[in-house]
């Protein structure tokens, strides 16, 4: 900005930053279609962001999705999640959420691609950082910034009922994904402690009310864990629980986490689970596993980087 006086430029250098995140580690997998970033924040903490490219199919257009983080670590403590093992540090600011999008966009521009979808499925519970998440979505959507439609944004939550109800009143046509992972309260409470405060019936009720109010389909995320929640009987109970005209079930075979006794089911067992839901008339997909060789599951790359830093010489 050489048209500005030198003193003004020096002052700007002291008080203004072009971004709040700095790429620290970048890993590429799936022939370049999955990229995971470990981003360093101004206070030295790190977060993860993943970009996934999908080719066009007979049912869908080509898309490039960014999975953003909303917190440094996570306070929820799900038993199968690598992020939960690292504990919780703090919420991200609006700027730190927005800048994940901008950083990935600049990188993609070199290959003449652009982000088409955003999912809040990275580190953290988005609704635990409600205000910053909503402001970031509005910032992306503003005509004088990115003009990115909220209809292409998905917020994933473990089921914080009051915030689901609040989100329904925001006038933001975002998509809502409920991280359910179990068909009954006893099992879910053993996996997700916050279920004792917000049981399944309350969560599904709030989700259905959100769908009716906004007209947006609810996605129920269900991580399949071998021998824990992947039986045909559990699939039948899940079908009764989530059947609704505006619902979809996304089955996610667990990404293996180092040191965890939990494991993904076989392909045949996952397909049997899916078949039960489809037979009940429920739209169901099995998410393709991406980036296993780059620690793409939420929290894995950050955990490995922290272990490296803390390892004795």
What Rg do the Cα atoms give? 20 Å
Based on Cα principal axes, name the global outline: globular
Helix/strand/pairing category: alpha/beta
Provide the CATH topology.
Answer: TIM Barrel
What is the tally of beta strands?
12
Largest sheet: 10 strands, mixed
Strand order of the largest sheet: 1-2-3-4-7-8-9-10-11-12
Binned, the helix content reads 25-40%
Which CATH class?
A: Alpha Beta
Order of helices and strands: HEEEEEHEHEHEHEHHEHEHEH
CATH superfamily: Aldolase class I
* Second rung of CATH, namely the architecture: Alpha-Beta Barrel
Total of DSSP H or I helical runs spanning 4+ residues: 10
Q: Proportion of β residues? A: 15-25%
Give the distance, in angstroms, between the N- and C-terminal Cα atoms: 45 Å
* Total domain modules: 1
Stretches where pLDDT is under 50 for at least 5 consecutive residues are: 306-313
Q: Overall mean pLDDT score?
A: 90
Gist of the model:
The protein is α/β, with parallel strands linked by helices and 313 residues long. The protein is built from 10 helices and 12 strands.
Keywords:
313 residues; alpha/beta; TIM Barrel; two-stranded antiparallel sheet; 12 strands; 34% helix
